[in-house]
Design goal:
This protein has 133 residues and is mainly alpha-helical. It contains five helices and no strands.
Length: 133
């Protein structure tokens, strides 16, 4: 294996795009997308203890489903994100799943940054995140 092609253990990353584009060693959980598309539920609650990859996985869902024009904080608003998924299991799951990539507006909200010592600071952090989104 070419040393330049080896995957890296990236710690502390919670953004799927940054993780993949920086060559992170990723345990492929992309079939979560297929599972969510195949179930008829209107609401899905994903609970896990801290440090179990919830934010990274939700970020993966965002980059798969989100309309490129919805990424207002990026310099290239129409950037196609399919390159992030081409080597993952979801890409091989069939055309009907690939067709869903980049088709929906997505609201992505994380409480990860809302860990403050005082409630007022936590409240401000949450309001700021909501306003940003």
């Amino acid at each position: 294996m070419d040393i330049n092609k080896q995957k890296k253990l990236l710690l502390g990353y919670d953004d799927f795009r940054a993780f993949i584009e920086n060559g992170g060693y990723f345990v492929d959980k992309s079939l979560l997308l297929k599972e969510l598309m195949d179930i008829p539920h209107q609401v899905t609650l994903i609970t896990r203890p801290g440090r179990f990859g919830k934010t990274l996985n939700l970020s993966m869902l965002r980059y798969f489903w989100e309309l490129p024009a919805c990424r207002v904080n990026e310099t290239n608003l129409n950037r196609d994100m399919s390159h992030l998924f081409r080597d993952l299991a979801i890409w091989g799951a069939g055309e009907s799943y690939r067709e869903q990539q980049g088709k929906y507006p997505v609201i992505f909200f994380s409480f990860r940054g809302a860990k403050q010592e005082k409630w007022e600071d936590t409240e401000w952090s949450i309001k700021n995140e909501l306003a940003r989104e």
